[in-house]
Amino acid sequence: MEIKDKAKMIPIPSSGILNENDIGKQPILECINLGIEFGGLKAVDNFNLTIGRTEIAGLIGPNGAGKTTIFNLLTKVYQPTHGTILLDGKDTHNMNTVQVSRAGIARTFQNIRLFSNMSVEDNVKVAMNNSMNYSLAEGILRLPRYWGQEKKAHNKAIELLDFMGMADVADVKAGSLPYGAQRRIEIVRALATDPKLLLLDEPAAGMNPSETEELMHNIKKIRDEFQIAVMLIEHDMNLVMGICEGICVINFGKVLAKGTPEQIASNPAVIEAYLGSSDD
Amino acid sequence: MKKLLRKDNIKNLSSYILVIVAFVVCQILIGAKAMPSMYQSLLIPVCVYIVMALSLNLTVGILGELSLGHAGFMSVGAFTGVAIALALKEVITATWLLLAVAMVCGAIMAAIFGVIIGIPVLRLKGDYLAIVTLAFGEIIKSLFTNLYMGIDPEGGFHIGLITKPEDLVEGSKMLINGSIGISGVQKISTFTAGFILIIISLIIIFNTVKSRTGRAIMAIRDNRIAAECVGINITKYKMTAFVLSAAIAGAAGALYSLNYSTISATKFDFNTSILILVFVVLGGQGNMIGSIIAAAVLTILPEALRQFADYRMLVYAIVLILIMLATNNPTLKMFFDKIKKAIRFKKKEEAKEDM
Ligand SMILES: Nc1ncnc2c1ncn2[C@@H]1O[C@H](COP(=O)(O)OP(=O)(O)O)[C@@H](O)[C@H]1O
Ligand SMILES: [Mg+2]
User: Fold this and answer.
1) Nearest residue CA, atom 23 of ligand 1?
2) How far apart are CA A128 and CA A145, in angstroms?
3) A34, A253, A261, B287: which could join A47 in a potential S-S bond, CB 3.0 to 4.6 Å?
């Protein structure tokens, strides 16, 4: 509740809504007429959205609406066939997945994609690869730079895992953990890349109510602590309405509505297309 | 302290200990003249095949790509090593140094081939990659069976493909002679060099796996898209693993070839590639100590079975099948898991008592 009062949403001309803190600052993400076709099927069409630097934004819509596809476009897993993506004002047109990651977008996956044969700690350390720069030779010969950077990486990994309450499973094989824990590790791994924008694809899927409650708390904590933007896809309306400051609803690849949780909850078109059907 | 005792550390340590103990025991047996000469002549090949299995395990187990042409890199290393040893015979008189230089050059040349092959091959996935590596092995074989290289008295090199180089003057010396290969090789390989090569290979592989490079390589193996999304450059790390694997195989190839007086390309054919793959699969993908044991046992076995004469390969095949059944048998696996659990439980109990 408190969050909603604090954030006075003000629509800005391009599209979307900005958090009070973010007004007058470069938005972290601007999607302009973004679109992709799969053999004639317009999976995403004319998608416009602006996200503020420290906003928690929700992306909702029925199954098959194109939500995951939007994440795949933002991370360049798919190349857009139309439109522009500006990340922190920079056009990502010529970037690939790796470059977008370095530029500051991190994500989790709807179908969990952990490095399942590696330990939880190593999963997190993989994501820190670009913040280390010792060479392979230094690694093989175990020279001082190896020890220094590895120690730092270890400490940061444990710190991040602890942040999500996962430090005690650091040595466990990631694939052997329960579903909810794996989702949390994906979030930690994404955070380890030092992102400016964190994309969460159905982070509460398969979690029980108390785990979901904790997740909501953690997402807010992530934004407050790291001062980053979070964009999340989620079907759990309590979660979405509870923590998102701006919500974008899509249907059949097109934007259906944008606004504050209150505006979305009372929008007749949204209720008909989506909210109404999930009431029962 | 707790970190030092982690499971993978114990596994790595036991590989080193196994190799060192085996080396010491062999040296004692040789010193006491208690080792039959047949087994003595196998010592260097065993070292070579252990290193071949370890290096292939880097590609298959750590990177997760199937390669069917690993003998090709061995071949490149072998020919380079022998050519270097022949060319530098007069310059470097200490044979151990000559051997070391030959092995390093073999590794470098194999690494160069690794890069050349890696550029097209690593864009492919799964079966396609396997088929192209297979073709690479065959291409290398035909290349070396048709390669002629001579040195004229002034020390200039002359190279010819399919036929001898025409500009070769009287009194020149042939280094590589087509399908005959190279003859008159100085046998400078030693068991100690083989032992050192195994240890170096283990250090390279284990320390790579525990570095940021190794983590990136394994991340690509486990989930390519997730690896890309956390900023891992797929091509770079795949290439690193592939080239490292090729370089180690090249060094092993040089050691192998300098153990015989003649060397020809047909020794490094498809069968050899498959043989090495069998060591890796039986020993367990990503399991280095398994590769060591499988390579050693399966190299010695055919020779030890010589008394069975004609039935030798039949017995060898049966043993292979039995090992395969044993290592994949669910009942046996369950049995071993139970033992492991019991040990772990006991350790926990002990830990509790300590507190
Ligand atoms: N790689 C692809 N090839 C063809 N069609 C795809 C591909 N990825 C997604 N689609 C289609 O795009 C639409 C949106 O899918 P998706 O983004 O996964 O929906 P959701 O909103 O449930 O996450 C679906 O109709 C899906 O079949
Ligand atoms: Mg989806």
Assistant:
1) A68
2) 15
3) A34
Q: Which 8-state DSSP code applies to residue B167? A: T
What residues are paired with B97 via a beta bridge?
none
Instruction: Count CB atoms within 10 A of the CB of residue A135.
Output: 14
Name the residue among A136, A171, A192 with its Cβ closest to that of B211.
A136
Is the minimum distance from the CB of A133 to ligand 1 under 6 angstroms? no
CA B139, CA B146: separation in Å to the nearest integer? 11
Both tokens of B151, joined, read 């040195």
pLDDT value of residue B355 = 46
* Rounded CA separation B145/A203 (Å): 59
Name A53's Cβ contacts closer than 8 Å, sequence gap at least 6: A21, A22, A25, A26, A27, A28, A196, A227, A228, A229
**Cα angle, residue B86 at apex, residues B178 and B48 outer, rounded to 5°:** 80
β-strand pairing of A254-259 with B147-151: unpaired
A44-48, A104-108, A262-266, B280-284: which is most confident: A104-108
Any chain A CB within 8 A of the CB of B203? Answer: yes
Q: Which two tokens stand for residue B129?
A: 């990659």
SS3 assignment, position B289: helix
B227/A126 Cβ within 8 A? yes
φ, ψ (nearest 5 deg) of residue B316:
-55, -45
Distance CA B271, CA B131 (A): 15
Render pLDDT for A48-103 as a digit per residue (tens, 0 to 9).
Answer: 999 999 999 999 999 999 999 999 999 999 999 999 999 999 999 999 999 999 99
Domains recognised in chain A with CATH numbers: 1-104+195-280 (3.40.50.300), 115-192 (no CATH)
What's the CA gap between A159 and A168, in Å, rounded?
A: 11
| CB-CB neighbours of A213 under 10 Å | 15
Domain boundaries along the sequence of chain B: 2-22+42-304
Nearest CA-CA distance, residue A26 and chain B, Å: 24
